[in-house]
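Continued from yesterday's entry.
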Amino acid sequence: MKKTETYWQEIFDTVDMKYLPVSYMKSIEVEFTDGEIWEIDLDEKESENVPVDEVLDNFFEEYENTIKEVQFKLDFDKIKYDISKRTTKFLKHNK
């Protein structure tokens, strides 16, 4: 693993993922109890100006009894960019 990858992995390991904004999610992979797997592309939904949080709420409400597992795929480039930007801003204002 490269030095920068190790650095970011250490940061991601300390993040509490219980409350992750939808804007940082790329897609969601859902496995159903019958073995079928769906992938919901959240970038696509966002580009269509569809309210992603509503889509997800409705989806999980409709299929909650048949979902076996959900995996969230994150946009790590966006997370890295935002963390770097906010850290720079914080350090600049707190000299």
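--- second protein ---
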Amino acid sequence: MSSTYTIRLPEKLREKMSKADTNWGEEIRAFIEERVRCLELVEVIEEMRERAERRRLTVDSTSLIREDRER
């Protein structure tokens, strides 16, 4: 199933588009699909970053250095 999405374009842009031998519907669909993939990827990366922050351990490095020197 598909949906229709309508946009307004400046008349000059529409004129320039009509001069190009391009299937604008296909071009716009491909652009939107790629943009959605990028946005989903950013969302996944942010989620992974948040999970990594929660897993991160905080350790006082000075105590580790002292412990190592005492050995």
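The chain has three helices and no strands. The chain has a mean pLDDT of 91. Will compare against the first tomorrow.
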